[in-house]
Amino acid sequence: MEDNKIKISLAQVNTRLGDISYNLEKHLEFIERAKSEQADIILFPELSLTGYSLKDAVYDVALSADDDFLKPLFRASKSISICFGLVELTDTLEAKNSNFFLEDGQLRARHRKVYLPTYGVFEEKRYFTSGNRFRAFDSRHGRFGILICEDMWHSSSTMILAQDGALAIFVSSAGPLRGVQGEKKPENIQVWENLNRASAHICTSYFIKSSCLNLLHT
């Protein structure tokens, strides 16, 4: 039915590392563009507000959910639902790689990345503490789930959200491009897209992904 359709805008942004003021302005620009296109939801990449390879700067850019800095995003969510990534500072002063889902001016849901990669160029477990659960949540647009990058590579993550009733699963990621060869799509992007397709078939849920990618010569 036409009334059951939702329009989702994907913000494939390239953030400035550690420059949260600049990144916030870019978020608001993308949100205004999505609103002008009558989108219901806008999805940003992993750590979209801070950039990815923060290393020892993690605590310099960490924000709690009630930080005044985030108020413009909360206000914007009164007219469009917003899913974005940030370094979250918890009540126990832990740094989490998190995604917030804002709607109607409120924090409707949050997901804290459970699987923190510590292989190759990735050092997340050195700087973040992991989340501990996967849960679907109710939005005015339906029941959704959130995964962050490495979470997607573990089939239990997607199955838990599907069994918890998620009609669609938002997947945000950030990472380097590998295997770039001429005009062909990079190898790791092909693998990532195949993983998303396979998970969608197995879980019978929609997967919506937004990525921030950097070129890594191999």
Fold blueprint:
Elements: E1 8-10, H1 20-36, E2 41-43, H2 58-61, H3 71-76, E3 81-89, E4 95-103, E5 106-112, H4 124-127, E6 137-139, E7 142-148, H5 155-163, E8 168-177, H6 187-203, E9 206-215
Parallel strand pairs: 1-2, 2-3, 7-8, 8-9
Antiparallel strand pairs: 3-4, 4-5, 6-7
Folded structure, characterized:
This protein has helices at 20-36, 58-61, 71-76, 124-127, 155-163, 187-203, and strands at 8-10, 41-43, 81-89, 95-103, 106-112, 137-139, 142-148, 168-177, 206-215. With 218 residues, it is α/β, with parallel strands linked by helices. A five-stranded mixed sheet has the order 1-2-3-4-5. The radius of gyration is 17 Å and the shape is globular.
What number is the mean pLDDT?
87
What overall form do the CA principal axes indicate? Answer: globular
Briefly note the structural class of the backbone.
alpha/beta
CATH superfamily: Carbon-nitrogen hydrolase
Oligomeric state of the chains in view = single chain
What is the makeup of the main sheet? 5 strands, mixed
Radius of gyration: 17 Å
CATH class annotation: Alpha Beta
Number of helices: 6
Q: What's the arrangement of strands in the largest beta sheet?
A: 1-2-3-4-5
Element order: H for helix, E for strand: EHEHHEEEHEEHEHE
**In angstroms, what separates the terminal alpha carbons?**
47 Å
How many structural domains does the protein architecture include?
1
